[in-house]
Write a structure and sequence with these properties.
alpha/beta; nine-stranded mixed beta sheet; oxidoreductase (chains A, B, C, D); six-stranded parallel beta sheet; GFO_IDH_MocA-like_dom (chains A, B, C, D); 34% helix; homotetramer; Gfo/Idh/MocA_oxidrdct_glycsds (chains A, B, C, D); 10 helices; Dihydrodipicolinate Reductase, domain 2
């Protein structure tokens, strides 16, 4: 029996709640999950959400969740700035934690979080759900068996358009205090995929840009935008492969695009998160006159698709990725090998992002470490 | 508080269990759901699944589920041949039922089921989940506002390849006792979409074929295949529109295709369940030089996508359709309007399928009613 | 040296002229082509076009072209109703002919054309250019080597939207004297592909419909439309395979769609003329976990692409198909084997179309022969 | 009457020959074209090709072509290293020239070519055919009318796989004397599109890489590869827009990809040369619930498609682009405005490429001018 606490009930909080509700019915091989304690900014909201999500207790103070002796693991889904305090407190209280990405607004905070995790001996996992999709997991297997030979070039793009409207008012995401912009918001996700599939990044050369230099404020004045909605990065992986990473949160038309292109000596692989239930494979082993990208629909033989649906091509959704991540977390808590980004790797992702930002500021190639 | 019973824990049984587990967390506006009683073919399996799926009681006899006074609604997910007895018993016991499609192997059994539902006054819903997708629901709205004008032609195809292997052995699906073949297996799904979007079918002209006339049996002999893996139908809708329906369960390469083409006086709409998180719209209202099919990714403004994910283009999965259906069922039980195929419409779907089969047998156009 | 005559300079006339201008430069292996004589409805237009297209002589009377002793082969690209007279005259005059499809408005005229061709001993080819594309030709090879095993199901659709505007005025294409509608306009093209890839059609069951029952005339009155813009056909091939053929010339959004689906015991093939430089192949010989439709871009190894471009994936255009057809015609004239639809097969295509129309009129299955 | 000379009869030589053969028949509005003189490396080949392509004279010495008084314009389609001498000689001889890209292996040679062109007063055009496609031309119009608002981000990729085979032997393209690699081979094409659509590039930061450090020579030894098959560039346009350019000639699976992404304040545009008969447009002017990328098939209203085919969606091919370019060249020779890249712009393209190379060598941002 695993006792669960949840702090935060926004986009990701609900997503965690759904995962905790379903993980056992989907996978069968995990202990019973008890939704113990939900924390929100105030008691009224906490009670409402606990009721909806099926939690037994509700508190307007997150510390009550962390201190609850029936809670074994805490989902932390609040805004980034609260992660360090909550995560460190939870770890100190002896809880495993499942914290949404990125770790923290500053690198030193992220370092402190990793130190706390190490000291606690508890599992400290991050919510990098895109690595969990059956297509990505299968691509990882295919790369390992060298189906496309030795990798020699990579490209990855992450684009959405939620900041693309020039008439939207100035908000906190346009302030430098929120971070760099696309790098924080988006670059971490492609990096989680790169880390999972190819290893770490060694050197980066970054350019950033602002689609809109100023925005209107609520009172009608213009205010200078301080963050960069677009980032483009030349990079070298530790394994020697060169490539590019691009992120744009003002890319009209793109909704949830994470487009990966991997080129090897014997073929190539394409993937786009907007069509996450398929991927494309080109292999030179096919007869020359019939070589072409295969559009492969995910199916039960692409793990763990079969735990959700026994029929091929029927499709998982975004929320299912969190259920898979939850399952990995439970395996990890149980001491089994797990496919999961924990604080140690999470810190390296953030180190890479900060190196990108420094590269832009200094207009030069920067070594990540 | 709604008490739930579940009979059957295969593909669809698990899918129902997941829906019951998540419906409240997703939608928030429904009563608490209590997973009361699970029935399976034997006690051991029932206990195991009840444990996994979170049901409080388990029985090796489905009648125990139906007779359980704490159960308000029963999910029936057993093979079709058991539907009539179970559904009628459950309705007689005063339970609402949520029965997987199709209703029954024979039309008279289906009629008896509808009669039982009418007599009971209880909700008797069918598991036609494809009508629940945000894309389909939005297409329905667009058709109602005549964004593509007056409809004048329809085409729908449903294709999978689970029967396509010529080396697979003869099994019960090849016996005439299992039904007609593709018509039973598949045609009901496209019909559920047609009914939802355009109304009923009035006349049909059907052809059927067998890709493989014989199959090997386990003992190595050849046995004649009695069912038809492929069905192609000319049809007229009650609203006067002509079109075609095709179904093929031996279509290599197709995994979960349900491809709809709708042509109107001002545009057209395309949809394919294999890429269920998008649909295509062509409208002549666009300037001539920029007319083209728009690939529209589902998003929070396509109901009820936003209940699952607040960001556009992130995608729902097959299992999410069942959660939506479950929500509609609960609304219906609560006396609210619901988007659901109940026994009355379900019977018409089956009437249409039987008319198709008769058309093939008699090699002529057949009126459905 | 081959002397060429051309009658008609509309869409297809220009297309023939371009083919005659380029065929030797593209293929190299044909005799020099001399553009001798061009005929149009009046001398002024004939002279202008002869000038543009590079013909040496021009006449306002097509008979002058046919009678020209320097002319060896005549391209006939006038409206269908003129084909019989011109083709028969040209054959009698001892010319080879290259006549645009379809042969003639009536079947008896088409029969007379075939009789004239047989009597003359000259080549009488038809302009069924879609069979010439490198993708289609390669699909033909793949089918012959049974890469997808034994074919068991076919579907083909041809759709455009040039008749889709409900506000367009009544014109001659809406009159019964122009033929049946979509059947004449379109069905012949898919049939040319079916004949080329699979052989002839034995039985048909056809439905037809009118998107718009009436249209405005120039003087503002309503007039009943007499032709059918949409035709849907159940069919059986002579080789026993069942399938469907659909044609719609009022399908908003479709511009030049000819979508073919071929299912076999070991895979399937897809093609769409709107993306004629690619085709899709699914084969069960691929490892199960990586089976998917390959999108294969045409390339020099798909004959005769390499005659046009030595680099793969660069794409041929619609007019290139006519150059290929022209090359086949010249090979045929030279007594070599050629990939070409001549009058004998053309008559069978028309016989099939007339059988479809009869099937609709009589509301029953009709044997083609 | 325009007298044409052609030097070189490889891929591009044939392409020019086809264009000269067809341009008048396609466009109608140009003077008669006389194919006067063809030059090749030896007389025998020259005679053979002149015969095939329809040229009146043939020479084994290119100077004979240039000196021919009947020749008004010379197509130069030999390998790059010969361009400077031939182009300068032709210009001095008072001929217009149509020279394949890039201008020359060295920048100083390219400068000398421009100087010669200026001095001659003749037209000196380059073979940047991708700017001629109806889709690209229409995109240019749409950008000019600001259909997607103000541009704020650009991405362009050009990828093929003709160098991707690791087992292919070392050849001249792997020697530094051939140039930088992908930059010379490919980057000039995307730059021609960027110049046409957005203007010039001001600053670049380039990374290059080698997929295969060594290759086998014919005698079995390993030899170090000196050129870079992949180049990735951060760039700023003179108009202030930031973006990226990537080129890879070892990208397995890519055959003729030139993928453009343009993001603006009111929408975005996508194009891929592998599907050159379509482009994609997303506009925020569409109602929110139906916003999506429109796939727009080229049609007669996208100039000059209609000169080739009067029906939409039927598709032009790669060779047709050269016919359009030829038409522009003739318009330019006749003193009319033309859509063409001449030596002045061509030199700027090459300046940009050399700046990219310098940026890589110096590992820093480089100003193009």
């Amino acid at each position: 029996m695993l006792g669960v606490g949840l702090i935060g009930t926004g986009f990701m909080g609900k997503c965690h709640a759904l995962a905790w509700n379903s993980v056992r019915a989907v996978f069968g091989d995990v202990p019973a999950v008890r939704l113990v304690h939900l924390g929100e900014a105030n008691t009224e909201l906490a009670v409402r959400r606990a009721n909806e999500f099926g939690f037994q207790k509700a508190s307007g103070d997150w510390r009550a969740v962390i201190d609850d002796p029936q809670v074994d693991v805490v989902s932390i889904t609040t805004p980034n700035q609260f992660h360090p305090e909550m995560a460190i407190a939870a770890l100190k209280a002896g809880k495993h934690i499942w914290c949404e990405k990125p770790m923290a607004p500053t690198f030193s905070d992220a370092e402190a979080m990793l130190a706390a995790a190490k000291k606690s001996g508890k599992v400290a996992a991050l919510g990098y759900n895109y690595i969990q999709g059956p297509a990505i997991r299968h691509i990882r297997k295919l790369l390992a068996e060298k189906i496309i030979g030795d990798i020699n070039h990579l490209r990855i793009e992450m684009d959405e358009d939620f900041m693309a409207d020039p008439d939207a008012l100035f908000n906190w995401k346009h302030e430098a205090t929120s971070g760099y912009g696309a790098l924080d918001d988006f670059a971490v996700h492609p990096l989680s995929l790169l880390f999972t599939l190819f290893g770490r990044v060694s050197r980066v050369m970054c350019d950033m840009s602002k689609p809109y230099a100023t925005r209107k404020t609520a009172n009608g004045t213009d205010r200078a935008v301080e963050t960069y909605d677009s980032a483009s990065v030349l990079m070298h992986m530790e394994n020697g492969v060169a490539g590019t990473l691009q992120a744009n949160r003002s890319a009209w038309g793109r909704k949830g695009r994470i487009a990966l292109q991997v080129f090897g000596s014997k073929g190539s692989i394409l993937f786009d998160q907007e069509r996450a239930n398929e991927f494309q494979l080109y292999v030179t082993a096919d007869r020359a006159t019939e070589q072409g990208y295969r559009t492969i629909l995910t199916a039960p033989h692409h793990e763990p698709y079969g735990q959700f649906i026994p029929a091929p091509g029927h499709g998982l959704g975004f929320n299912d990725l969190k259920i898979i991540e939850c399952h990995e977390l439970i395996k990890r808590i149980n001491g089994q090998p797990a496919h999961l980004i924990e604080f140690a790797d999470g810190l390296e992702i953030e180190r890479t992002v900060h190196a990108m930002a420094r590269s832009y500021q200094e207009q030069r190639w920067v070594d990540v470490r």
